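Review form for a predicted model. The reviewer records the input and the model, then writes brief findings.
Reviewer: anonymous (R2)
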Amino acid sequence: MSKLYVGSEIGQLRRVILHRPRRSLTHLTPSNCQDLLFDDVLDVERAGAEHDGFAQTLRDQGVEVLLLTDLLAETIAIPEAKDWLLNQQVSDYRLGKHLANNVRCYLNDLPNITLAKILTGGLAYSSLPKSSSSMVQGLYEPTDFVIDPLPNHLFTRDTSCWVYGGVSINPMAKPARQRETNHLRAIYRWHPLFAQQDFIKYFGDDETINYDKSTIEGGDVLVIGKGSVLVGMSERTTPQGVEHLASNLFKHGQAKQVIAMELPKHRSCMHLDTVMTHMREDTFSVYPEVVRKDVKCWSLTGDESGAVSIKQEDYFVKAIEKALGVGQLNLITTGGDSFEAEREQWKDANNVLTVKSGVVIGYESNAYTNEKYDKAGITVLPIQGDELGRGRGGARCMSCPIERDGI
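Model under review:
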């Protein structure tokens, strides 16, 4: 059995978790999409076809693709996992004792794959087999959700992120995404692929802890290699979360340095990887309007006691160059004039997934930026993303590597 390990952003990618959305997208409407953190409703069939194309591009590069819905269905085939997950996702405190019990009984009898699709895709009150005498149900409309859909599960990068020999199972910042974490807790705890392997859980595995302001999302975490990790402090990842992750990385001897960068707290750059990704050892894509020279940056170091030393750095580029042992970083900026660059950054031109050093997957519509990558010797494997991109995420956002070579 090959080892669960992610040693870099640019080494050969070997295994990833993707989520092909369907049911959750059918539940997106103009009136609820903002609450579910989507800017628009997507064409369900086209989004699915585009996602299939993305998965096939990965397979053509020799990458093994695991689908989240399948992993979840295989996990809840284990009775203990199913009981735990239903009690977490359909708790008495969420729905009240009476309705929660009725819903759990209904879901418990469904085929595992159907249950997995409902847990990720949502369930309306109108879809329950019979009306309950519960006061809770009596106060809702038939089109309201008894289980909210999780369309952002599409972005498997965020809910958990593998860093060297372990994983952070991330406490998410936004209520619309917080239930995603329990799905990954269950998969990593019980699914045979993971339960039979020895790996570290750095953070977020304990559902009994209120992580409060210590939130992390994987789009902010770049495993740049050579024992270093680059983390963005965004609207979703807090300094408190970074300190906890860094402490546990050092405690387990998995990293020697965490470089933390401040990001603006707005949606167009919700994660570090929407404005900066690693494409080759000395080469990053950057959106210069956000990734500026005056960005605040800190270096975190520590040891196996878990203690963290924090030092402010002058310039993040110098900190990265030192960590990677390269002379000078090559920063490829978003293409076109200022208008085109802003449009292409919004369409995830900087959010590419590196399959191996110098070869990336990105949306074909970002013509100006892709041309700049090509001129810099970076091969772009283009995928369609007219629908998927409207969820505000590109190829890196939509993939959770669980096995990748170091550098």
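Findings: The longest strand covers residues 13-18.
Further findings: The chain is about 35% helix and 20% strand.
Recommendation: see findings above.
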